Automatic annotation (TrEMBL):
This is 4Fe-4S ferredoxin. The keyword Thylakoid does not apply. InterPro entries: 4Fe4S_Fe-S-bd, 4Fe4S_Fe_S_CS, ET_IronSulfur_Cluster-Binding. Residues 4-33, 49-80, 81-110 form the 4Fe-4S ferredoxin-type domain. It comes from the Bacteria. Keywords: 4Fe-4S, Iron, Iron-sulfur, Metal-binding. The lineage of its organism: Bacteria, Bacillati, Actinomycetota, Coriobacteriia, Eggerthellales. One of its GO terms (molecular function) is 4 iron, 4 sulfur cluster binding. Pfam families: Fer4_11.
Length: 207
C-alpha cells in the first residue's frame, strides 16, 4: 500500500518561509491560517547562541489522536495513509485541535470572503472564489497536497524549497528516495515517545 510521507532537513533549512508561501498560494488558506509554517527559536547562550528553525505542518500520524477523538468520522485516513478532514462531516467541536500534540490544526471562525480582517480589507474575485474551499465552522490543516499528488506532482512545499531540504515519497517502498534518505540521514519523527507514528521525519534535529 502507498503511504505518503516527508523528510525535512532542519540542518539545511534556511528558514526563508518559501514553503509557507507556496502552501498559502497552493491552498489559498484564510488570513492568519497556516497549514505550513516555520517555527524559529534559539539554542545555546551568548556568545555561542544559534538560531534554530523547525518547519511545521500536520505530521500525518498513522496513530492519530485527532482521528481517534473525532466524534463524526470527519477526521480520517485517506487511501495514501494520510489524515484528512471531510468538511461535510465536521461539526466544529474542535476535539481534534485539543488532541493534536503538534498544534497542526486551525478553526475557521469566519467566512474569509466576507470578514474584514483589517481596515480596508477587500478580497479580489480570485480570493473570493478560493475562499469557498474553506467553509466557516470547520477545522482544517495540511492535506499533503492531495490534489497535486493525485496528478503525480510533489507537494508545493517540497517543490518550492530553495535549499532542497524536503523530500516526499512512499514510506512503504523501501527503495524510494525518501526511505533511503531517512535511513542515510538518521532522520526521526517529532515526539516519537507519544506513539503517534508521524509520517513526517526530520534530519538534523539537536536535542
Ligand atoms: Fe492529527 Fe495532529 Fe497528527 Fe496531524 S499532526 S495527524 S492533526 S494528531
Ligand atoms: Fe472531527 Fe470536526 Fe470535531 Fe475536529 S472539529 S473532532 S474534525 S468534527
Amino acid at each position: 500500500m502507498t503511504h505518503y510521507g516527508m523528510l525535512i532537513d532542519v540542518g539545511t533549512c534556511a528558514g526563508c518561509n518559501a514553503c509557507t508561501m507556496a502552501c498559502k498560494y497552493q491552498n489559498a488558506t484564510p488570513h492568519g491560517t497556516y497549514w505550513c509554517k516555520v517555527l524559529s527559536g534559539e539554542r545555546g547562550t551568548y556568545p555561542n547562541a544559534v538560531q534554530t528553525v523547525l518547519p511545521m505542518s500536520c505530521q500525518h500520524c498513522s496513530n492519530a489522536p485527532c482521528v481517534r477523538v473525532c466524534p463524526t468520522g470527519a477526521s480520517h485516513y485517506d487511501e495514501n495513509g494520510n489524515v484528512q478532514v471531510d468538511y461535510g462531516k465536521c461539526i466544529g467541536c474542535r476535539m481534534c485541535m485539543g488532541a493534536c500534540p503538534y498544534d497542526a490544526r486551525s478553526f475557521n471562525w469566519f467566512d474569509s470572503a466576507e470578514h474584514p480582517y483589517y481596515e480596508g480589507f477587500e478580497q479580489t474575485p480570485y480570493e473570493q472564489m478560493r475562499a469557498a474551499e474553506h467553509p466557516v465552522g470547520v477545522v482544517e490543516k495540511c492535506v499533503m497536497c492531495h490534489g497535486r499528488t493525485e496528478e503525480g506532482k510533489e507537494p508545493a512545499c517540497v517543490q518550492t524549497c530553495i535549499t532542497k531540504s524536503r523530500w516526499f515519497g512512499d514510506l512503504d517502498d523501501p527503495t524510494s528516495e525518501l526511505c533511503k534518505k531517512i535511513e542515510e540521514m538518521g532522520a526521526r519523527p517529532l515526539k516519537p515517545e507519544l506513539g503517534t507514528k508521524p509520517s513526517v521525519y526530520y534530519a538534523g534535529l539537536v536535542d
